[in-house]
Amino acid sequence: MRRQGRGQGQRQGQGQGQGQGRSASPHGTPHGGKRQVELTVERIGGRGDGLATLDGRPVFVPQTVPGDRVRVRVEGERAGGLAAEVLELIEPGPERVEAPCGLFGRCGGCALQHLDDTSYARLKRGQVATALSRAGLGDVPVGEVLRTAPATRRRATFAAKRAGGRVVLGFNERQSAWIVDVADCLVVAPAILAVLEPLRAVLDAVLADGPPLDVSVTALDGGLDVLVTGGAEPGLAAREAWAAFADAADLGRLSWRAQERSPVEPLAHRRPLAARFGAVAVPVPPGVFLQPSAEGEAALVAAALAALEGCGHVVDLFAGAGTFTFPLALASRVHAVEGDEAAFGALAAAARGVPAVSAQRRDLFRDPLTAAELHRFDGLLFDPPRAGAAAQAAEIAGSRVPVVVGVSCNPGTFARDARTLVDGGYALEAVTPVDQFLWSSHVELVAVFRK
Ligand SMILES: C[S@@+](CC[C@H](N)C(=O)[O-])C[C@H]1O[C@@H](n2cnc3c(N)ncnc32)[C@H](O)[C@@H]1O
User: Fold this and answer.
1) Domains and CATH numbers, the chain
2) Which of 96, 365, 412, 424 gets the most CB atoms within 10 Å of its CB?
3) How, if at all, do strands 275-277 and 280-282 pair?
4) Is 409 a known active-site residue?
5) pLDDT digits (tens, 9 = 90+) for 35-71
6) Of 101, 107, 110, 409, which residue is the catalytic one?
């Protein structure tokens, strides 16, 4: 969970002025001569906003559902149409329910709590089906959505800032750099929520005025792993305060870095921490990628194992720290390829104890495994970042690997890459959406191709 979509997805800009008065909040903007109209919402769009039509143009109306009759203020242009904010819900649509979280609407973490459960699942499935259809793959069967439960997110990134003399710690507001103070969250695992109060207290002791910090909290085997990004390098007093916090909150590890790509400095390392993938506990460095929930990961891994059953030699592309590699290695030889130095380091170190696994560090955008290199494998899994795997997909398309599993958190780039594979002679057998970004507009999927 990231702090805007820190709730769930991407990060927004860093707020500079929290605590200086907030006349520009989405809820407090003076009407200022902007056009006000009544609209009926027709459907929900890809980013989770309701969609209506005004003068033949699409209007994006956040937190609305089909059938809602709303009075809105048109805020201005937005890519593909107009952006509007609800001033009044005149008549609710039939799919509307009361959002379970009191912060819904303000907090940028969730976009879809106001939709009944059946419509919600249909929407997530529809996102995948629409992306496939846009890529000319509309006849591919899309399975029912595999759901994950609330309170199971095992990693979350909070924003923290000193504002008006006090510390705010939470997620970015929707469409804003303002931070919503969060004490409770229906998405995040209780073990992570339990650390917020002590975290607020230590931040109050060490945090100076300035741009917000990121505080990522991940629940691993062995305890919580907290990584603070941003702010001034901690001096002696701050280091002592952080270490005391780590003891009091019984953290596994606490680290700091100046920026996202800067070296990570340990502030406290109290216990060994690992991510468990199949039979292997992989000691992972701070900040390394993990699937957002253990449940979602289990669903993806089970689907991959089922599709790749019987394969003697599997290549796992964009392998991370070995989420799929080690479970697959229980039955197959696995060659794992990963570009990130830290993830690869963890993967390669753990692979030393597993003879069935070989590991390679390689940039698969610039230097994908070629079709000729892929010929020695009889199974392939690719799980790229949101940008997808365009160059690698072109090579897979030209290969003879008989079974390919695709895992993706972006149906749009997945559909593009799937089209490449289909054009290369693969049949896309089935696609299963996995809802592990609960109540956000994001959806994960796992798919099986055969040649
Ligand atoms: C969505 S994550 C999946 C990781 C892993 N399969 C898992 O489930 O934990 C995508 C992975 O691709 C890696 N990655 C991103 N860009 C890459 C590139 N150009 N070449 C190789 N790996 C890359 C990231 O470091 C990350 O580990």
Assistant:
1) 36-97 (2.40.50.140), 122-148+277-450 (3.40.50.150), 155-272 (2.40.50.1070)
2) 96
3) antiparallel
4) yes
5) 999 999 999 987 889 999 999 999 999 999 999 999 9
6) 409
